[in-house]
Every structure is written in structure tokens, then in C-alpha cells.
Write a structure and sequence with these properties.
The complex is a heterotrimer of chains A (222), B (232) and C (162).
Chain A lengths: L1 H11 L2 H9 L1 E3 L15 H19 L10 H10 L4 H28 L8 H23 L4 H15 L5 H9 L6 H33 L6
Helix pairs in contact in A: 3-5, 4-5, 5-6, 6-7, 6-9, 7-8
Chain B lengths: L15 E3 H26 L24 H6 L8 H22 L11 H28 L8 H15 L4 E2 L2 E2 L9 H4 L2 H9 L17 H12 L3
Antiparallel strand pairs in B: 2-3
Helix pairs in contact in B: 5-8, 7-8
Chain C lengths: L2 H5 L1 H32 L12 E5 L9 E11 L2 E13 L5 E5 L10 E3 L4 E3 L6 E2 L5 E3 L8 E7 L2 E5 L2
Antiparallel strand pairs in C: 1-10, 2-3, 3-4, 4-9, 5-6, 6-7, 7-8, 9-10
The chains are: A mainly alpha (222), B mainly alpha (232), C alpha+beta (162).
Chain lengths: 222, 232, 162
């Protein structure tokens, strides 16, 4: 390990970079050992952890999942019933979705109540609001994928709500559905949105979020 | 600790501690706990696949994932031309408010005790979401009353019972009493579970209702609700 | 920070660093094992196809040259059962006996074909050449063409997948 690190370090000069990360000070008010209430500063980190878990379990679930009305249900039931650890991995993804929404929401409450969004951190709050919506969008699109009763009906109702929106609603609902009925094209669309577009946006916004945190530091306490 | 208003990042010193290894160790421990909880939930919480999607099944009660329930519940309160209030106006205003909040609340004070309006707003938002979600859950638990499916012979029995007990006050197709609402198209207005609940507890319609509890067996009540639910 | 902590700073750093490693290792294993098992699950217990597959009626066999036949059998593939089509050659030995040879080249699995002018099986990929009995004449194939187990019943030839 040490030798490999030395080899890379001689060529890329990583040590100062790592030093900077490793030695950057964390304020006491974010240290649960020093400040009892500091645990509320953990929600953001846990959100990130859960999102990483979702990416990991999601990637593995794609080994078996097929986004087609003919196969989606059978492939999910195959994962749950026949693949080793299949029930565990798919449940982990399901629980993770709820945990992600919950943790992002709690993180947002912490930022709100400690007023951590105040000048100069307004933009990071805005990025965070987008992250919340992206995570909820992932929840909505992921719900259809197993193609069981609740998947089909929740999506039908959700898209009909959108359809009721004046002016652009009908167009947007048709665009998401790929037509006027929830079916094959809806499933492939939701699948691609769920595994490509929204995760891409998620990573972009997360990068911006973390960049701003490192640039501006952890905000001052109450 | 007093609030230093000018500097935005923390100086290394006595009020801070290093990221590595101290803070990272803390984060590792927290991650350990969080993932353990997640794994336990995944192991213990059985989330079975339902039946395969069936677009012809009109008996299915669609519900979104729990974190959308508050939005779903909100829609129940806006009818007719006010539907857009629930689908567009409230969500759009909330979104706009959320996005612009740091620019609306520009004060320097960060202590919550000195920010009564922020506190009130935050608590109001949380309470609304929690209350709407709970209302949705409570109303759903009624919907999941397990009713045996309607059988054809029940309809005749239900009509018979209706003519014995209900027509004294209720009317149907122009016949019957006028003390209570006409039930000719009751099945189009309310669902069968609601009919059952009204028969069991008439007061859910109104605290001052004059409707009395009719002594019926479960089978008889199911027959009446089946008969009325088909009146569309 | 107390004096006591300052004295023990370096051992404390070591302890914390080891703690981080322990947690990382725990999760590496705790997630790695299930995810590995999840991915490798379908490779357990290769499904052998035990049934006899009908190939062709004996009467349809032509002269002594190899007869090319396609055959089809049902195979479990994930959560579906699919019809798999494959090809084999029936080689007659003159005395009424015959062997059934798979067309899969033992080198890398390309489909070999019969070259009637040269009286040889030729592989289109890397120049493998086999004689009528499937023995290697030229090229990289490490072993002869695979012979499939066969039997005759009710005037038809049946084989079994290798």
C-alpha cells in the first residue's frame, strides 16, 4: 500500500492536497462530543451516505431488472424470490428511498432552524432545494418500475394530477407518459429518468453543494 | 460562544478540531449506525410485490409512497374550479417560497429565539405536512375495511332490507320518506365503505343527525351497502 | 483541550485512524458479500439439459457426407423459458453407425461448416480445420469437435446437450 502511494505521490504530488482535506478544522459546534445538539449536523452527511447506497444498490438491481411491461414484474419477482440476497438488496433500495427523502428533509430543517442559509450561503440553500426535488423525483419514477398494482395506479394518478395543471399540464403529462396511456413507453421513460437523467442531475447538484460547503465552511452555530 | 458575523469560515484554533482523524472517526461511527439501521429495516420490513399491474381493476385504491401522501391529501380539499389551487397554486407558492427563502429572510440574527417569524413559519410547515400525512393515513385505514365482494343475491336482500328500514326516512326513485336525503344515486356520490360507516355510526355525517342505528347483522349491513353502492 | 489530551495525541490519532479502517472494513464486507452473492447468483448450479432432443428421422439421412441439422430445445433463461436453436452434423460411418458432432469450434466457439470440396470442417474464425470424424488437422483448436450423446428410438435420432 505504502509503496503504491509513494509511486503515485511522487508523480502527482497528492500529499498537500490530502493534507488540506485532512487538516481542515471542524468547528466544535459540529462535534457531538463537545456539543450535545451537534447530531443535527449529521443529517446532511447521512443523506449523502444513503444516496451513495442508493446508487450502489440501484446499479446492482439493474443486473436483473428489465424495463418492459412484459418482463418488469417477472424480473423484480425473480430478484426478490430467486436471486441470492435479492430480497435484501431490493428492500435496501426501497428503504433507502424513504430514508433519503427523510434525511434530506431533516437536513433542510436543520439548515432552516440554524439559519445556515444566511449570506453568503443563499445559493447553497437553493442547490439543496433542487436536491430535495431531485430525490423526490427519483422516488416517484422508481415507484413505477416494479410494474405491480400500486406502481401502475400511483403513476396513473400522479400523471393525471399533472394533466390537470392548466396550460402546459396536458403536454407535460403526455411527454412523460409517452402518449395518453401508462404503458410500455411510460415504463422505459421512467426507467431512463430514474437511472440516467435524475442521477446525473443529482451528482451535478451534489458536487455544487459540496463545493460550496468546502468554500464557505460550516456555518456558525445558533 | 458569541457569533462572529464577519468571518464565514472557522479559523483553526481552540474552538475547532481536525477533520482527520477526529471528525472522520465521528462520521464513520454515525455512518455505521445509519447503515446498520438501514440494513435492519431492509431485513425486517417485508415489502412484498403486489399483484401485477391490472389497468382493468377498478377496485384498487391507489396510494403514493408515504412522502407524497401530504400532497395527495391536499388535493382532497379543492373541488371544481378550485382544483388548481391544490395542484398548482399551493405547490408552486411553496416551491417558490422555499427557493427564495434566503433572499426573503435577510436578517443577521441566527438564534432561533430571536427569529419568532421564522420559527412560526417552520413549525407551521412541519405541522401542515405531518397533519396532512396523518389525515391521509387515518382516512386510508377506513378505506381498508375488508368488505367481502358484492354477490348478486346480496343485492335483492339489500333491497328488501332497504324497503323495510330505510324508506321510512330516505327516498329512492321518488318513493319513500322525505326526512332524509334521497339515495337514488348514492353509489355515485360515496363509496361502499363510507355507506357501511354511516350505517354503523350515523353521526359521521353530522353530529345532529336524526338517523338512528338500525339493529343489523354484519351480513345484513353488507347487503344494504352492496345494494346502495350499485345505485349510480 | 486538556493537557492530558495533548500528551496522548499521537496514540489517540492512531486509535481513531484504526477505528475508521475498522468501520470501512466492516462495511466493505457487510455490503460486499451480499452484493457479490447477488451478482453471482445465476452462475450457481449450471443447468444441465437432461432431456433427449429429437433431431431427425433415420430415413432422412442422405449419403455418407455429414448431414447438417438444426435442433431446438427449451432452456430456462433467468425468469423466462426460451427456445434455443443450435446446429449439429450427423456423420455416417458407412455401416449404419453414425456420430453426432456439435458445430461449435472447441477453440473459441465459432460455428464450423462442412467444406464439401476439401472434405473438411472449417472454422471461419482462426482457421481451425477438422476431418470428417472431427479430429483437428490444422489451426489452434485444442481438441476435436465435441461428439454429442445420441440414440435411435422409433426410427428417429435423439441427442442430448453436452
Amino acid at each position: 500500500m505504502g509503496k503504491i502511494y509513494q509511486f503515485i505521490d511522487q508523480r502527482l504530488d497528492l500529499t498537500p492536497l490530502l493534507r488540506k482535506i485532512a487538516d481542515h478544522p471542524v468547528p466544535d459546534h459540529a462535534n457531538p462530543l463537545k456539543t450535545r445538539s451537534a447530531f443535527i449536523y449529521c443529517f446532511g452527511g447521512i443523506s449523502f451516505l444513503v444516496i451513495l447506497m442508493q446508487i450502489l444498490t440501484g446499479a446492482f438491481l439493474m443486473l436483473y431488472y428489465v424495463p418492459s411491461p412484459d418482463h418488469a414484474y417477472a424480473s423484480v419477482s425473480y430478484i426478490k424470490n430467486e436471486v441470492a440476497f435479492g430480497g435484501f438488496v431490493s428492500n435496501l433500495h426501497r428503504v433507502g428511498a424513504s430514508a433519503a427523502v427523510l434525511m434530506v428533509f431533516l437536513h433542510m430543517l436543520r439548515v432552516f432552524f440554524t439559519k445556515s442559509y444566511k449570506n453568503p450561503r443563499e445559493l447553497n440553500w437553493v442547490a439543496g432545494v433542487f436536491l430535495l426535488f431531485i430525490v423526490m423525483g427519483l422516488g416517484f419514477t422508481g415507484y413505477l418500475l416494479p410494474w405491480d398494482q400500486k406502481a401502475y395506479w400511483a403513476t396513473t394518478v400522479g400523471l393525471n394530477i399533472l394533466e390537470g395543471v392548466p396550460l402546459a399540464g396536458g403536454f407535460l403529462a403526455d411527454a412523460l407518459r409517452g402518449g395518453s396511456e401508462v404503458g410500455m413507453l411510460t415504463l422505459t421513460r421512467f426507467f431512463v429518468i430514474h437511472v440516467m437523467f435524475l442521477p446525473g442531475l443529482l451528482i451535478l447538484f451534489l458536487a455544487a453543494h459540496f463545493f460550496m460547503v468546502r468554500r464557505q465552511g460550516i456555518s456558525h452555530p445558533l | 460562544m458569541s457569533v462572529n458575523k464577519t468571518s464565514s469560515s472557522v479559523d483553526p484554533g481552540k474552538n475547532s478540531y481536525p477533520f482527520y482523524p477526529n471528525h472522520m472517526f465521528m462520521e464513520a461511527l454515525v455512518a455505521f449506525g445509519a447503515l446498520l439501521v438501514l440494513a435492519l429495516l431492509a431485513l425486517l420490513w417485508q415489502m412484498p410485490l403486489e399483484e401485477i399491474a391490472d389497468p382493468s381493476d377498478s377496485a384498487y385504491v391507489p396510494r403514493p409512497e408515504w412522502y407524497f401522501l401530504f400532497l395527495f391529501q391536499l388535493l382532497k380539499y379543492f373541488k371544481g374550479s378550485f382544483i388548481v389551487v391544490g395542484t398548482v397554486v399551493v405547490p408552486a407558492l411553496a416551491t417558490l417560497f422555499l427557493l427564495l427563502w434566503p433572499f426573503l429572510d435577510r436578517g443577521e440574527e441566527t438564534r432561533l429565539s430571536k427569529r419568532p417569524r421564522s420559527l412560526a413559519l417552520g413549525v407551521f410547515a412541519i405541522l401542515s405536512i405531518v397533519a396532512l400525512t396523518m389525515l391521509a393515513v387515518v382516512e386510508d385505514s377506513d378505506l381498508h375495511m375488508d368488505l367481502p365482494p358484492i354477490q348478486e343475491q346480496q343485492l335483492a336482500e339489500g333491497e328488501d332490507l332497504f324497503n323495510r328500514f330505510c324508506v321510512l326516512c330516505h327516498s329512492m326513485h321518488g318513493k319513500g320518506g322525505f326526512m332524509a336525503p334521497d339515495l337514488t344515486q348514492v353509489g355515485a356520490r360515496v363509496n361502499r365503505v363510507y355507506i357501511e360507516r354511516v350505517i354503523i355510526t350515523p353521526q359521521i355525517v353530522s353530529q345532529t343527525t336524526i338517523m338512528s342505528k338500525v339493529p343489523l347483522s354484519d351480513e345484513e349491513r353488507h347487503a344494504i351497502s352492496a345494494f346502495l353502492a350499485r345505485k349510480k | 483541550m486538556s493537557l492530558c489530551e495533548k500528551q496522548t495525541t499521537s496514540s489517540r490519532r492512531g486509535f481513531l485512524a484504526n477505528g475508521i479502517k475498522a468501520v470501512v472494513a466492516f462495511f466493505g464486507l457487510g455490503l460486499g458479500i451480499p452484493l457479490l452473492g447477488f451478482s453471482l447468483s445465476p452462475t450457481r448450479g449450471r443447468d444441465r439439459h437432461e432431456d433427449w432432443i429429437p433431431l431427425i428421422a433415420l430415413a432422412e439421412l442422405k449419403d455418407s457426407r455429414p448431414t447438417k441439422v438444426t435442433y431446438q430445445y427449451e432452456r430456462k433463461d433467468g425468469w423466462t423459458t426460451v427456445a434455443t436453436r443450435k446446429m449439429a452434423f450427423i456423420v455416417q460411418n458407412g455401416d449404419g453407425a453414425f456420430t453426432v458432432i456439435s458445430n461449435r469450434c472447441p477453440h473459441l466457439g465459432c460455428g464450423v461448416d462442412w467444406d464439401a470440396t476439401a472434405n473438411q470442417f472449417r472454422c471461419p474464425c482462426h482457421g481451425g480445420v477438422f476431418d470428417l470424424q472431427g479430429r483437428v488437422l490444422e489451426g489452434p483448436p485444442p481438441r476435436p469437435l465435441t461428439q454429442l450423446a445420441s440414440k435411435v428410438e422409433d426410427g428417429s435420432i435423439f441427442i442430448r446437450e453436452a
